[in-house]
Amino acid sequence: MKPTIFWKDKKIIMIDQRRLPLEEKYQEYSDFREVAEAIKNMVIRGAPAIGVATAMGIALGASQIKAKSYDELKDKIEDILKVFEKTRPTAVNLFWSINRMRRLIIKNTKSEVEVIKELLYEESKKIWEEDGKINRLIGFHGAKLIKPKAKILTYCNAGSLATAYYGTALGVIRSAWEKYKNIEVFSCETRPYLQGARLTTWELLKDNIPVTLITDNTAGYVISNKLIDLIITGADRIAANGDTANKIGTYTLSVLAKENKIPFFVAAPTSTIDLSISSGKEIPIEQRDEDEVTHIFVTRIAPFGVKVINPAFDITPSTFILQ
Fold first, then answer.
1. Architecture of domain 5-137
2. I need a surface site. Which of 13, 178, 196, 293 has the fewest CB within 10 A?
């Protein structure tokens, strides 16, 4: 499996996750605005992958700026940063990536314009490489928490597709599979965007890891009937107190885990931790288009005129997460 996103000839290549699992299509981007739209429209998704795509998009935009001075370059790059800031409000990795690229610019006030452009390009590559290495470490250490023959429930997609490669929650599962070869995974479909059904099962099947797909409202049944040993998810933002924002429905699973006394784990890189906010109450929750609920792809499943709320994330209290 190719990486989710990568550079090729100074252009950005990313898999179009909207087409999966039926079509494995990679798109090429040569304009930073297209990259920002790809983030906003979920061509690429998952907090770490959004962070990587943001850094690469900034570097791409900077490379095409015509500027004669540092100040002129900096001002034009700030305009690019504002475009990315408006794409996905909950995934803190996006803002972490923006700030990292901004700090690099500020650090190089004495450098030539073309040098700064190249430094931004190299920094985006570093962020990509670091993300993959971190995911493998998360997988290595997380696998120590998994017992042989474990039955693991996961939610949404926190795999290679949500990162540069390898994955966070699925990175733990991959490492545990490499270690034991006898674990089993249950994947919730993850309405309304079906990341679990479309993406997680696709990834696991590619790695020959046994996976069973369930509807979201089957989770209580499989957990209460002792078919699940633990739950592991990714995260889009973690507050200073450990409260965690993840795909809508994660909180429900954490309540089920607590009620049925099974471990609930979150796997995420440090770039997902936002120490600037004290609790989950301060995490902004992205509200998405009602069509994602009233339609499955292009097919309408709800009557015209019905009211819809479609929050993309919910908050799991730190007290529900095993630490």
1. Up-down Bundle (1.20)
2. 178
